[in-house]
Amino acid sequence: MILPLGLVDVARADPRITLYLGGDILTMEGPTPRYAEALLERDGWILYVGRQDQARAKAGEGAQLVDLKGGTLLPGLIDAHGHFILASHTLLNANLAGVRSIPELIQRLQAHAGSVPSGEWIEGMGYRVEQLAERRHPTAAELDQVSATRPVFVQDGSGHEGAINSALQRRMGWPAAAPAGEEWVFSVLQARPPRSLQRVREGVRRAVALWTANGQTTASELGFGLSGQDLAVVEQIKAEQLLPIDVVLYAKHDRRDQVRERLGRAGRYDRRVRWAGVKVWLDGNTSAMASASGLDVPALTALLLELRRDPRWAGARQLGAHAVGAQAAETLLQAMERATASAGASDHRTVLHHGVVLRPDQVQRARQLGMGVSFTAAGLYPMGDALAQALGPERQAWLGPIGSVQRAGIPFSLHHDAPAGVSPSLMDALWSAVTRTTRSGAVLQLQERIAPYAGLQALTSQAAYQLFEEQRKGSLAVGKVADLVVLDANPLKVDPMAIRRIQVLATIKQGHWVYRSPQWGGSAAGQREPVAHQDAAAVPEAGAQGRPAEKSR
User: Phi and psi (nearest 5°) for 229?
Assistant: First the structure.
């Protein structure tokens, strides 16, 4: 017989075969929605997807039963652009999201300072200048109120700007006015002293909790090497096998040789860590998107050719490019055109990340070059009104052109950019891409909306394709890994405005339950506490709580 585990004992069980049924099972196979009545998992792999009677027959005696109780089963969500390793650092810092003034920012840092071990800096992240009454970053003198002797370092919500106190200025050897721009932030991250093994473990645990509580079974680090301790953290992760989910690394381009020497083999998972490629920054945050920075076209072309031709980069050839504005996108496109003309076409799957502003001609050129795009969709709500006004009537049509990219047939994903984004929830990103609602209630470029199913593809099958993992992940099909997420409602069956209220009930990585919501089954077995780390002021009110009602059919 089939033994019912329900929702209480399954996290403690280690069944050879598990049968899932009792809710919508959305396979994400194909261009239109496909449902199954049941799914069988054995030893972390999908054994069968289809009819319930056949699943029961294949399950045989002694199989474990998971009743979804009306929940929706999907492939585990894929974080196509996040900063998991960076988050393992910042989640140990003061959470400055939502602060409204510099005095409030100072108070949060002071409250946090007492918990910081001796030898570590006092740090915080998440404030936004546009939300501060003073409309500026804190000064060194203001941060000296937190400590006049210990280094104090704060980053804004984008991670590209920030401030330091006088003690850290002296340590960095800088004059009273710290140099402007993101490069000084990156320099400070490199100079941060290493944390203890215990603190590294705690930071990784918190990052895992954040990603799994949001339904993600594959995380990413699009800037590996930003912090001076990144390599040591990954080496500790591997040595102690700290990860219950997969993490894909893209090395900062000027750290790639160091990463290759320390991590060695690239391209395959090693204790759930995979070094997949290289990351470049071609501009800054939205306030700096009008001007390109970093590599110019000749230097980027040379890097692309090096990755493609040099045998040292086998397995880590993929390029991810930070390009917020159209000028940075132009740098990438021209370099891609030159590299393709020199080396010929290949399955490179270069990804333009963020794509806040893309011209129509750039979208078509990206398609011709075989590129992908990954959008920071959730930013449309808090920043859409201001960005549209800044761009003006003609150019605002180029703002986050997700619909245009889809119609062009370009593979695209949606991401959260945590801890730099406004929310670690991919449901927030999905809601924003589907509704394109701004803080004022306006709809930002109706023609750029996408359907909920296309948005779910961008979080599953299309994200897997961007990572070269479509053969193993991204859909529920026989022979793929049993990476699963259970939602409390089906995003295809609720009012689009309610998508942001959908909650993750469980996250399952290759058959192992790595997160379970306390709302489901009344059991804490296998539960990892969610870590609140989002900018509440930059995320819309969820409205009425509870499960979103399904649309009438």
Answer: -95, 5
pTM for the full model?
0.91
209-236 pLDDT, tens digit each: 999 999 999 999 999 999 999 999 999 9
Of 489, 491, 437, residue with least CA distance to 459: 491
224 forms beta bridges with 251
CA distance 131 to 435: 24
Residue type, 121: W
Collapse the DSSP code of 223 into the 3-class scheme (helix H, G, I; strand E, B; otherwise coil) and give the result: strand
Query: Chain centroid to CA 450: how far?
Result: 20
**How many angstroms separate the CA atoms of 525 and 508, rounded?**
13
The position carrying tokens 């319930």 is: 52
- What pLDDT sits at residue 539? 63
Of the candidate ranges 153-167, 224-238, 290-304, 506-520, the one whose mean pLDDT is the lowest: 290-304
Nearest to 331 by CA among 310, 360, 362, 356: 362
Average pLDDT, the chain: 90
Q: Which among 397, 412, 388 is positioned nearest to 445, based on CA atoms?
A: 397
CA atoms of 338 and 332, how far apart (whole Å): 10
Q: In sequence order, which ranges of 314-441 are alpha helices (DSSP H)? A: 326-343, 360-368, 380-395, 402-407, 426-435
Q: Which percentage of the chain shows pLDDT scores above 70? A: 89
Mean pLDDT confidence for 415-425: 91
| Contact (CB, 8 A) for 338 and 303 | no
pLDDT value for 3: 43
- Beta bridge pairs of residue 38: 21, 50
pLDDT in tens, 86-130: 999 999 999 999 999 999 999 999 999 999 999 999 999 999 898
Beta strands 64-67 and 72-75: pairing type? unpaired
* d(C-alpha 135, C-alpha 197), whole Å: 38
CA 230 – CA 85 distance, rounded (Å): 7
Residue 323 vs residue 543, higher pLDDT = 323
User: Which phi-psi region, left, alpha or beta, contains residue 353 (left: φ > 0; alpha: ψ -120 to 50)?
Assistant: beta
Please state, in angstroms and rounded to a whole number, the distance separating the CA atoms of residues 396 and 384.
10
Model pLDDT for residues 222-277, shown as the tens digit of each residue: 999 999 999 999 999 999 999 999 999 999 999 999 999 998 778 899 999 999 99
| E strands, 204-350, in order | 216-224, 246-252, 273-281, 318-323
Cα separation, 163 vs 170, in Å, equals: 13
**Inter-residue contact 142 to 107 (CB < 8 Å):** no
Name the residue type at position 476.
L
pLDDT at residue 523 tops 50: no
Tokens matching residue 387:
């960005």
Which helix or strand (DSSP H or E) is residue 354 part of?
Answer: strand 351-354
Contact 193, 163 (CB under 8 A): no
What is the rounded CA–CA span in Å between residue 47 and residue 33?
A: 21
Distance CA(508)–CA(499), nearest Å, equals: 21
How far is the CA of 475 from the CAs of 7, 46, 156, 355, 470, in angstroms? 23, 10, 36, 25, 8
